[in-house]
Design goal:
The complex is a heterodimer. In chain A, 35% of the residues lie in helices and 24% in strands. Chain A is built from 7 helices and 10 strands. Chain B starts with 5 loop residues before the first helix and ends in a 5-residue tail after the last helix. Classes of the chains: A alpha/beta, B mainly alpha. At the A-B interface, strand 6 of A face helix 8 and helix 9 of B.
């Protein structure tokens, strides 16, 4: 990472929840993380390790109990259209067409309707959905829906994309296809991407760095620099070396978790 | 006039749609889709006609269907029936519009603000169980026997189902929809008009359907008690003249009109809600 200020910075972040039973649970403990501008970082870990909590803190959906979350040197206090979140279940509006959904983010900004339309169409072209512009979400496959949601995000030209297990509901082939698409778009537009997943292969395919997290309490176990050129061949020897390393570390985390208190898979 | 439990109404409507999809195709292929609903009414008419002809039913109490049909045709030709229907329908339109708009606005306030909900919880709980018919004498006392009292009765009748269903729809807005709007920094007004209300549209339609049904029932109820025109009045007047056939023409036209209104709204609904599957 360069020595200029990081795009996203978490310093000594702690997040506590009060559970339904009334006792306090620590979702994240004393977490430090820096993400550079234009970087693509994957957060992986078993469930309960707080990876979704981290992304919600960065996106401004939640506030840390302690510590500071900053983007561009400014403390995150609320959701911001410059930092768009992409959800696993797409968050598309079923009553709007594909084009209408992509336009949603653009409307009511200080741009003319014609300009908004241009941007929306360009964005749809980027994800290869120009021909589906007048369809409604229920007519689309899961992979297409997620591409609409990516197009909607990209249309407003955000500097950060937060992706919370965006491909988890898709079948293996669609998932791989969308991973490649995402990388192509990333190389073209260079947004900073924070990508949460529980798939180790997905993390190694996408991430310049992979942040492995451990539960109870949620913390960073290890940060892996994946020094592989894009596009990455999933069957390469180098790929499998990183894969092996991450798997071993992951098993360690898992064992720790199982030895730990209430955690169960 | 009874209240319809709007929630279970919603569910059963959904169940109907689902089973429809699976079975409509099979039924249509066997030609049963259009014929099946006709069998029971036709059987009923045939039995009724036969019993009347044999003199087992007194025609002064229940005239045979063929007689009723003749009276029906006469009353259509003279314009009498359509005139009464038109007057009643016009009252329904006015009363329902007032009740539905009021119900929608109140529902939005309740749905968006827990404070408003808490403030209204007692008064709505108290007023809702009152049968519409109980309001009629009270409203006549307050407003006289003119149009105002009848329209108010209809407005009250259509207010509740719209209110309950719209609140239900607003409550069930997917959290994701709201989060997406928050990300794109939408104003509260945009959130309401572009996200919350569209997503509540299926429930709003359920409310409208039930509401207009109750409005139609209310108008007849109000006219039975005090009116000088309208289908309810027509039935009441025929009773005084012991014209069973005219009464039955009135009763059956109420059913037919109700059916047509419901059909029209359903058609509109399927057109507007193509996206909701």
């Amino acid at each position: 990472m360069s020595d200029s200020i990081p795009k996203i910075q978490l310093s000594a972040v702690e997040k506590r929840f009060i559970s339904a039973r009334g006792d306090e649970q620590i979702a994240l403990s004393n977490l430090d993380l820096e993400i550079g501008s234009g970087e693509i970082v994957c957060l992986v870990g078993p469930s309960g390790c707080g990876k979704t909590t981290i992304i919600n803190l960065m996106a401004g959906f939640e506030k840390p109990s302690n510590g500071v979350v900053q983007i561009d040197g400014k403390q995150v206090s609320a959701p911001d259209p410059d930092h768009i979140m992409i959800f696993q279940d797409y968050g598309l509006y079923p009553w709007r067409t594909v084009l209408g959904n992509v336009l949603f983010g653009l409307q009511a900004r200080r741009i003319s309707p014609a300009e908004a339309l241009d941007k929306a169409l360009a964005s749809l072209e980027l994800v290869g959905l120009t021909s589906a512009r007048d369809k409604h979400p229920h007519e689309l496959s899961g992979g297409m829906k997620q591409r609409v949601s990516i197009a909607r995000a990209l249309a407003v030209e955000p500097s950060v994309l937060f992706m919370d297990e965006p491909f988890a509901a898709l079948d293996a082939f669609t998932r791989m296809h969308l991973q490649d698409e995402l990388l192509r778009i990333w190389q073209e537009k260079r947004p900073t991407i924070v990508f949460v997943t529980h798939e180790l292969d997905e993390a190694i395919t996408l991430g310049q760095r992979v942040v492995l997290m451990a539960p109870n309490p949620g913390r960073v176990q290890r940060i892996l620099d994946v020094k592989l050129a894009y596009p990455r061949e999933r069957t390469d020897v180098d790929f499998s070396i990183f894969r092996k390393e991450l798997f071993e570390e992951f098993h360690l985390v898992h064992r720790q978790a199982l030895d730990g208190t209430e955690y169960s898979i | 006039m009874e209240y319809i439990d709007t929630n279970s109404g919603d569910d059963s409507a959904e169940a109907l749609v689902n089973s429809d999809k699976a079975q409509t195709a099979r039924l249509t292929r066997r030609g049963g889709y259009f014929i099946l609903p006709l069998i029971v009414p036709i059987l009923l008419l045939v039995v009724w006609e036969l019993l009347s002809r044999k003199g087992l039913i007194k025609p002064t109490i229940l005239p045979p269907p063929s007689d009723i049909w003749l009276v029906f045709v006469d009353m259509i030709k003279s314009g009498e029936l359509l005139n009464h229907l038109r007057i009643s329908l016009w009252r329904v339109i006015k009363g329902f519009s007032a009740g539905a708009v009021l119900g929608l606005v109140t529902a939005v306030l309740i749905g968006l603000s827990p404070r408003v909900e808490r403030a209204l919880v007692l008064i709505t709980g108290l007023l809702r169980p009152i049968p519409i018919i109980a309001w009629v004498p009270v409203l006549i006392l307050w407003m006289g026997i003119d149009e105002a009292s009848k329209i108010t009765v209809i407005a009250i009748g259509s207010f509740w189902p719209v209110l309950l269903n719209v609140v239900h729809g607003i409550r069930n807005t997917d959290k994701k929809y709201v989060e997406v709007a928050t990300i794109f920094e939408k104003s509260r007004w945009t959130l309401l008009t572009k996200v919350v209300l569209p997503s509540a549209l299926p429930s709003i339609f359920t409310g409208i359907r039930i509401g207009i049904g109750i409005a139609w029932m209310s108008v007849v109820g109000a006219e039975l008690i005090a009116a000088s025109a309208g289908v309810g009045y027509m039935i009441m007047y025929a009773r005084e003249l012991s014209q069973a056939d005219v009464m039955l023409v009135g009763v059956i036209s109420i059913g037919i009109t109700g059916l047509l209104i419901d059909y029209a709204i359903r058609t509109l609904e399927t057109r507007l809600l193509k996206w909701s599957i």
